[in-house]
Design goal:
The protein has six helices and three strands; from the N terminus they run ααββααβαα. Helix 1 packs across helix 2. Strands 1-2-3 form a three-stranded mixed β-sheet. It is of the alpha+beta class and about 140 residues long.
Length: about 140
């Protein structure tokens, strides 16, 4: 018994074969779209679906959507291929929710021995009821190693 590839499994069933063919067609349209769009727009537009000659394109924002709509007629002719004729292009804003990059929180450096000694001396010189003295004492307790 030989191992079958995922593509062979997809092509084996009738409905799965249609799904695989549709996915391949969408990928082909995506490549054609990327080749037809100006470089600045490429990362912000993607093919969402194709049905009955109508190509649905999702864009990241309204400005990109407006520009893609302006390019619509020329895009339709460039995106038509031997298998499918694009008769209409619909553009929708479908903003992605990118996960903002997490900033690595760098823990602040702890005071060295010289700084701890200076803070200890300052705390000793302050009056007993001083809020600063209490704060310094808490800080010194927290940074003890």
């Amino acid at each position: 018994m030989t191992a079958r590839s995922l593509q062979e499994h997809l092509d084996s069933g009738d409905s799965l074969a249609r799904l695989a063919a549709h996915a391949q067609r969408l990928l082909q349209f995506q490549r054609l779209l990327e080749a037809a769009l100006p470089e600045a727009l490429r990362p912000h537009a993607r093919v969402a679906n194709f049905r009955l000659g109508k190509l649905l394109i999702h864009t990241a924002n309204g400005a990109v959507a407006t520009k893609v709509r302006q390019l619509g007629p020329s895009l339709a002719s460039e995106l038509s291929n031997k298998d499918a004729k694009v008769t209409q292009i619909e553009v929708r804003v479908q903003a992605r929710n990118p996960v903002p990059p997490r900033k690595m929180h760098k823990r602040p450096d702890l005071p060295g021995n010289k700084q701890k000694q200076g803070l200890t001396n300052l705390a000793r010189e302050l009056p007993g009821e001083s809020p600063l003295k209490r704060a310094l004492e808490r800080l010194l307790l927290a940074v003890k190693e």
